[in-house]
Design brief:
Length: 604
């Protein structure tokens, strides 16, 4: 085993913090651990430096479902390892009861791991790698699996309550498969899922409480406290015939234990402590490359000259990054600067041979300079203030119309669960710039220059490296495009979209209503939302141009007939654009999304 870090500093420590507990993620975690095991020969091949230490070391804290071995009872728990020549999952380091039972969603657990890894490796430069599910505002948290099943399969799925085999009872999917209806006076229910034309799957559903939301308040100001979740656990003893439909259904059956979310505020609070500073933060989680998340971390690593952040603005497959090539390159050139390593990780990712062509074309990964996140927020805040402060009603109407035109050309990134809420921030301003140039309309004279400044800052200073697949690059041929440049921002296209994002949207609510006390600032909103006027701007946008209140208010006056025609025109354009996009994918040999909806490999 490598030394405990008492010798003078080596050059790099890679600190990996991974956690999953859902049925899709657990087997993927095993594959990831296998990839790390393959690195041990690369790490061991290093020649010890003059102090007898290796210049690149890798430490791991892994939370997953372990198989019983060597007296270890197995089950869900946390283990610590160093990836060296002796690495084996059968021999974890520092396994104690308090280590096994910790919540990986705790900032104290994350801080404890960083402290342990840095002391052990004693390196001059550190990379922290968070591996698991992402939501754009938190890590490791998951949507309830039963809701995904409802959304995916609808009327093709029959659900039967077989808790009492003597009297099985058919469950009406959209009405009774809810916590309050399903459990009533019981905490465990046995159900049978039958997809039309396939065999059945028997599942046990448990009800449990989680402190995932223990410190949060709902939009009305009431404290959420503990939340009840449903755990769907397939019966491992039942031999299930191989069937593609059944295999796809199984992916959505959660076998969660006590994993909770690691919120952006918790990551921020952990990393801004001097003893926890790192040079690079790498995240393998969906939609975590957000303007808001970058701003949250802006005060981290205050003593460091640089702080780089690598993540995906889109869904990312569990294949993740190209660990072998990137870390091997670091071993061969251990004097690599943080910026050079960060760029290398981004560019190596799509080369990974486990990606198929469709998956490669769906990637949108970037590295940003977090030391520039404050300046980016300043630019966005200035833009929001400029629009909100327009006094001339005619000019205000024109500017809002320009924003609407630009926003409607930005396609949503990420899960449909989040209802069209994440867009590429650079693409929005590019489209806005085009609208300004094409229309002879009134606007503040400083507006075109500020929009150009924002685009240039994002491209030339904030984003230092990106890799955008062919399926996510900007398209100039159609009205609607992903326009991927590497960084997303929260900008729902309607009030309905925001309201449907209760678990996610609460972090972007600038204000909440408290009964009898009016509105006040939301204590759990991210710092970008609280500090910058951007969210005030997009909430005004939703107010006037939301799907439920289209063209509502004083900014646009129109009669009901004209309003209906405009709405029909918008729906027709959206339908036509979607059809054109699907035809474009077929022509370019990329499988259309609707064919892959129920068959794409798991993302995280």
């Amino acid at each position: 085993m490598a030394n405990n870090g008492s010798s003078p500093k080596g050059k790099w420590a890679i600190l990996i913090y991974m956690a999953v507990d859902d049925a899709n993620g657990i087997p993927q975690s095993k594959l990831f651990l296998d990839e790390l095991a393959a690195l041990k020969n690369i790490i061991a091949a290093q020649k010890p430096n003059e102090f007898g230490n290796r210049d690149v070391r890798i430490c791991l804290q892994a939370y997953t479902n372990w198989a019983p071995k060597n007296g270890d009872p197995g089950g869900f728990g946390s283990r610590r390892f160093e990836i060296d020549e002796n690495f084996s999952l059968e021999y974890p380091l520092d396994v104690k009861d308090d280590t096994l039972k910790i919540s990986m969603g705790s900032k104290d657990a994350l801080a404890g791991f960083i402290k342990w890894g840095k002391e052990r490796c004693n390196a001059a430069q550190n990379l922290l790698f968070l591996w698991g599910h992402g939501s754009g505002s938190s890590m490791f948290s998951l949507e309830d699996s039963y809701q995904r099943i409802i959304d995916l399969y609808g009327n093709d799925l029959t659900v039967t309550d077989i808790t009492d085999l003597a009297s099985p009872r058919r469950i009406i999917l959209k009405e009774e498969l809810k916590k309050e209806n399903l459990f009533k006076d019981r905490n465990k229910v046995r159900i049978r899922l039958t997809l039309r034309g396939t065999t059945s799957i028997d599942i046990t559903i448990f009800k449990r409480k989680t402190d995932f939301y223990k410190d949060l308040k709902d939009r009305d100001g009431s404290k959420i406290g503990s939340m009840e979740l449903m755990d769907l656990l397939p019966n491992r003893n039942d031999l299930q015939p191989l069937n593609p439909q059944v295999e796809r259904l199984k992916k959505y059956l959660s076998s969660r234990s006590n994993l909770d979310g690691l919120f952006e505020q918790e990551i921020r609070d952990c990393l801004k402590k001097k003893e926890n500073d790192v040079d690079i933060l790498l995240i393998m989680g969906c939609c975590m490359q957000m303007v808001e998340f970058g701003y949250e971390l802006r005060k981290s690593n205050g003593t460091k000259k640089s702080f780089y952040y690598i993540a995906s603005e889109e869904l990312i497959y569990f294949d993740g990054y190209n660990y072998k090539d990137s870390f091997k390159a670091l071993v061969e050139n251990c004097s690599m600067a943080p910026a050079e390593l960060a760029k290398r990780i981004v560019l190596d990712a799509p080369v990974k041979n486990t990606y198929n062509e469709y998956e490669r074309q769906s990637l949108a990964i970037s590295c940003v300079d977090l030391k520039k996140s404050g300046k980016l927020a300043e630019h966005l805040g200035k833009f929001a203030d400029m629009v909100l402060d327009i006094k001339d009603e005619s000019m205000k109407k024109d500017v809002w119309e320009m924003m609407k035109t630009a926003r409607k050309q930005c396609r949503h990134f990420g899960e449909d669960d989040y209802m069209y809420s994440f867009i590429d921030v650079t693409w929005f301003f590019i489209k806005l710039q085009e609208v300004i140039a094409k229309n002879n309309i009134k606007h503040p004279k400083e507006l075109p220059g500020l929009v150009e400044t924002i685009i240039k800052f994002l491209k030339d200073e904030y984003i230092i490296q990106s890799w955008i697949g062919a399926g996510r690059i900007p398209s100039l041929n159609y009205l609607l495009s992903y326009g991927g440049h590497g960084v997303g921002i929260y900008f729902p296209d309607s009030e309905e979209a925001h309201k449907n994002n209760k678990n996610l949207g609460i972090f972007f609510d600038r204000e909440i209503s408290e009964k009898g006390k009016g509105k006040k600032r939301n204590p759990v909103a991210n710092e970008f939302t609280k500090d910058i006027s951007w969210n005030k701007l997009i909430f005004e946008y939703m107010k006037y141009y939301g799907e439920k209140s289209n063209y509502k208010g004083s900014l646009v006056t129109t009669d009901d007939e004209k309003k209906q025609l405009l709405e029909e025109r918008g729906a027709f354009i959206h339908e036509l654009t979607t059809a054109l996009l699907e035809k474009d994918r077929i022509i370019t040999d990329v499988i259309p999304e609707f064919l892959l909806k129920n068959s794409t490999p798991g993302t995280n």
